[in-house]
Design brief:
alpha/beta; 6-stranded mixed beta sheet; Helix Hairpins; TIM Barrel
Length: about 950
């Protein structure tokens, strides 16, 4: 059995180039500083004790689960510099040297002390770090941690840190020792005095907040520390200062004074870096909105995601000869010149996930389907496609398919060790969710209200189960209709049997009643009793003979039928294998064994028939005797003999018809039972729809708020909701040529019956009203769109006359059904109807908007709906640059933390401002062959150069980003 471990290893190696979240502690103390919480280490000297503490500290860190640690002892950094240059943590933890500085501002605020963290690159020499410490501060070896840097302007100090190659972070800003507390106290000199008892007015708090915000943003800090998750929101600002948009990074304070505190997970900050280190940390601090998270920001469980894809051409036709690329868990951008294979990768994903099976659901119809299939054929022919997928519980599977233009679905699923998972429909299994939107597919979503509703439903908690139940009820309705139709076929068969004799029941009953006088009834009592016994045995014999006839068709078994044809042109080895297998399974013997069972069953039934024949002969003799007794008793009374003969023949006719009627009424009871079940299913469907409507209504405002999370001046999204009013399919059904008869069609359409009925009633309501013959319920009127719509008495009468299917056959004295009418009424209930729910863009239905406007309105919806992987080919299509910059980029940057997003794009703003964790640069070697040129995060200089050289406006996108973050 072949395994897929090699491809998994290759994908994992490629994933090392991707920017991912790493566990970081940027405020930690060591045994080399003051305030260290010593363990229970006894020693005979302080030096020896310190050495043991150092060893314990190092061993403790090695056991921890952090990627980057900044050691920041109070006013000391010698131990940090020494440890950062050591080889002990190589490949395990990156140690950055730093220092926690006691800073006292210049007068008049010199009576306050701030704690500031300064952090430097790996292996930074002590002498360079100490350059920020003035000469009047004691030397490192003599420091006790209480020394201060004072009489220097704060901005000047931060500039000195930057000039010396370091970072400066405001430590524990929200504590009594932090900058915010100090600043509030400083407020008495120019803003508002800070009252620790919280008696400030809302306006005073706002004044302090706004002034503090500007002070923090202009001071030059690279970041600030807070201790609580909820405090982070108070500092997530972005303000325009001196023409540049400036924001500040917020990190979680650790301030660990022992290994146990340093390694506490609730004190970690999660920072996105390609490689944990000073350089990537510095870059991350410049992009806090996408690169810095607390534990509470991360998904509680890993989302399903595609780890990577392999496309190997097994012959001519494949665009990629051997492509292996990994995908980020967050945002991956496929870039490259036109014709470099970006869409080929998207279409490979479409094919392997089985979405060719649903191409006909794309509203564009045959034209778009044709284009996509032509693209697949041109780029994927003879290609083996493999996708590494991480699903529920981090279970890794391999999806594999060889592209075949004549085969809509060819995918299989394997475990890494090569075991076939025997999943025959990837999408239906639910184990590998994916949402994929190819070129121009996004804007087509906005063209039909029902597709918008489907997407909105994904935002309603616990709704999917009810929607599945509704689909199941619709299937049950169709099943019950078929059962009703089958029963109706039986009823009609009984009615037609024996030249429709059942319809002469009234006539035959009258004949018998005429001759069945009390005297004759007494004379014939014994004879009638014998005839009743004969009817019972005759019916049993009829049933037995029916089973014998069925078994006769099976008496000759041929399990090998057609096998000889399959052996044609096969090798001798194959024929030998088949001969051995036939003998091993003993197929010929099994045939004989089964034929024996059938013969035995026939024999048993024939024995039963023989016994019944004996009983019938005896009963016929009994009938003959009783008949003889009757005739002897009436000897010489010719008139009575005539009446007796007429009574006998009329009874025979009546009994024959009564048998038919009894059989008919038995089936009628079954028909009514199924019809009752059908009606109950309708009622359950209606009740379920009301619950679905209720859930949608309760979530409407919340969903609107989420959709407007990225609201701009040019785009306001709202939801138009009308309970149960999506009845367009119902009106189309009623307008169909096969519904009304030819004589009805013109009249009913002329009087607008289809629209009036569809506006006033749901399909199930119309079906139930007709079947129950409830004319009063059919009469109704409403005002809709300023016009009166009604069903009046005349219309109700006509509809019931045209479609009420039940009546009585007066001759047969049985209820009957007009099968054609009943079928139509039952089919009405199966017509889909739902709530009318559609997206409004700036107050107007999105389907009436331009393609670009439709795309902009649908993007938030498809991105917000789920947490499964999202793949989009050129999401910027039909969008102008303003919408890309103001809407699309923000959506991708925000939501990539909650779901995997893979986009093929030509727009540099998506790549740069979206801060893509993985960029796959594709290139065309020729018009028929492409390759992956390079892949990695946007922090890679070669990637940056590729974006600038390949993408029109690439350089401008970087300039815009630098301005946004105040970098230049």
């Amino acid at each position: 059995m072949s395994t897929y471990q090699d491809i998994l290893n290759k994908i994992n190696d490629l994933r090392k180039r991707i920017a991912t979240f790493h566990k970081v502690v940027i405020h930690a103390h060591s045994p080399g500083g003051s305030g260290w919480k010593s363990g229970n280490i006894d020693s005979f000297s302080e030096t020896a004790k310190w050495k043991k503490e150092e060893v314990a500290f190092i061993e403790g860190l090695k056991k921890g689960d952090i990627d980057l640690l900044a050691l920041t002892d109070h006013m000391k950094c010698s131990f940090a510099c020494e440890l950062s240059g050591a080889d002990e943590f190589s490949g395990k933890i990156t140690i950055l040297p730093g220092m926690e500085v006691n800073f006292r501002p210049a007068p008049p605020f010199n009576h306050f002390r701030l704690h500031l963290l300064v952090i430097y690159p790996e292996k930074y020499p002590l002498e360079k770090v100490r350059k920020i410490v003035p000469n009047d501060v004691r030397a490192e070896k003599d420091c006790n941690g209480q020394e201060e840097i004072k009489n220097i302007d704060l901005q000047e100090f931060i500039k000195n840190v930057h000039d010396s190659g370091g970072l400066c972070i405001a430590a524990h800003i929200d504590t009594d020792r932090g900058v915010r507390r100090t600043f509030k106290q400083l407020g008495k000199d120019g803003i508002v005095f800070y009252d620790p008892n919280g008696t400030l007015s809302a306006e005073e708090e706002k004044q302090i907040s706004e002034a503090f915000k500007k002070w923090i943003l202009t001071a030059g800090f690279d970041g600030i520390e807070v201790s609580k998750y909820e405090d982070k929101a108070h500092y997530r600002w972005a303000s325009e200062i001196d023409g540049a948009v400036v924001s500040i990074a917020v990190l979680r304070t650790s301030d660990g004074h022992c290994v146990g505190d340093i390694l506490k997970e609730d004190r970690f900050t999660y920072i996105k870096m390609t490689k944990p280190g000073f350089s990537d940390l510095k870059k991350a601090l410049c992009f806090p909105d996408t690169r810095i998270r607390f534990a509470e920001d991360l998904p509680p469980t890993p989302c399903p995601r595609i780890l990577g894809i392999q496309i190997i051409s097994a012959g001519a036709g494949g665009f990629f000869k051997n492509l292996e690329v990994a995908f980020s868990d967050n945002l991956t951008c496929l870039i490259g010149p036109r014709g470099s294979g970006k869409s080929a990768i998207i279409e490979a994903l479409r094919y392997i996930f089985g979405y060719n099976l649903t191409l006909d659901k794309i509203e564009e119809g045959d034209e778009l389907t044709k284009k996509l299939k032509e693209l697949q054929k041109a780029t994927l022919s003879n290609c083996v496609i493999r996708v590494i997928y991480s699903g529920s519980g981090e279970k890794i599977s391999v999806l594999e398919a060889t592209y075949d233009a004549k085969q809509e679905y060819a995918s299989r699923v394997f475990t890494i060790d090569g075991t076939d998972c025997e999943i025959h429909n990837i999408e239906a299994s639910g184990q590998f969710p994916l949402r994929l939107f190819g070129w121009s597919e996004i804007e087509t979503l906005g063209r039909e209200a029902h597709r918008q509703r489907d997407l909105l439903d994904r935002l309603v908690p616990c709704l999917n189960e009810k929607l599945q139940s509704k689909d199941e009820l619709r299937r049950l309705l169709a099943q019950k209709r078929k059962e009703i139709e089958a029963s109706l076929t039986k009823l009609n068969s009984i009615l037609k049997r024996k030249s429709e004799k059942i319809k002469r029941y009234t006539e035959y009953k009258a004949d018998f009643d005429r001759y069945n006088t009390p005297e004759m009834e007494k004379i014939f009592s014994a004879n009638d009793y014998a005839n009743a016994k004969l009817l019972i045995f005759t019916k049993v014999k009829e049933n037995a003979e029916s089973y014998v006839s069925q078994l006769k068709d099976l008496e000759k078994m041929d399990l090998l039928s057609g096998c000889d044809e399959l052996l044609n042109d096969k090798s001798q080895d194959f024929s030998k294998w088949w001969l051995e297998k036939k003998e091993q399974i003993a197929l010929n013997a099994k045939e004989i064994e089964v034929e024996g069972f059938i013969a035995k069953a026939k024999s048993v039934l024939k024995a039963v028939i023989e016994k019944i024949d004996l009983e019938i002969v005896a009963i016929e003799e009994e009938i003959t005797k009783t008949d003889s007794v009757i005739r002897n008793g009436l000897s010489g009374r010719d008139s009575d003999i005539a009446i007796a003969d007429l009574r006998r023949t009329s009874n025979e006719r009546l009994k024959e018809v009564e048998v038919l009627r009894k059989e008919y009424m038995t089936e009628w009871a079954n028909f009514e039972k199924i019809l009752k079940e059908w009606k109950e299913t309708c009622s359950t469907l209606n009740a379920l729809q009301h619950k679905i409507t209720g859930k949608r209504i309760t979530q409407k405002e919340k969903i609107e708020a989420r959709l407007n999370q990225f609201e701009t001046k040019i785009m306001k999204i709202s939801i138009d909701f009308k309970a149960g009013q999506d009845r367009s399919d119902f009106e189309d059904f009623l307008n169909g040529d096969n519904f009304f008869t030819q004589s009805e069609h013109g009249k009913f359409r002329q009087k607008d019956y289809p629209r009036r009925l569809a506006t006033l009633f749901t399909p199930t309501e119309v079906s139930e009203i007709i079947l129950n013959n409830e004319k009063d319920k059919l009469i109704k009127d409403i005002m809709a769109d300023g016009a009166r719509i009604d069903v009046d008495d005349e219309m109700a009468t006509r509809i019931l006359s045209a479609f009420y299917p039940f009546s009585n056959d007066e001759e047969a004295k049985v209820p009957i059904v007009d099968g054609n009418k009943l079928r139509k009424v039952l089919e009405i209930a199966e017509v889909k109807w739902d709530d009318l729910e559609r997206i409004l863009l700036n107050g107007e239905p999105v389907e009436h908007k331009s393609p670009g406007q439709r795309s902009s309105a649908m993007l938030p919806l498809i991105a917000l709906a789920e947490t499964v992987p999202l793949v989009i080919d050129q999401p910027e299509d039909n969008l102008d640059n303003q919408l890309v910059g103001e809407v699309l980029v923000d959506i991708l940057a925000e939501l990539k933390q909650k779901r995997q997003i893979i986009v093929a794009t030509h727009n540099p703003n998506i790549v740069v401002s979206g801060d893509a964790e993985e960029i796959i640069v594709l290139d065309a070697l020729s018009s028929k062959e492409g390759k992956c040129k390079i892949c990695g995060s946007i922090d890679n200089a070669e990637i940056v150069n590729s974006v600038i050289s390949i993408m029109e406006g690439g350089k401008d996108a970087f300039i815009t980003r630098h301005r946004r973050y105040g970098l230049g």
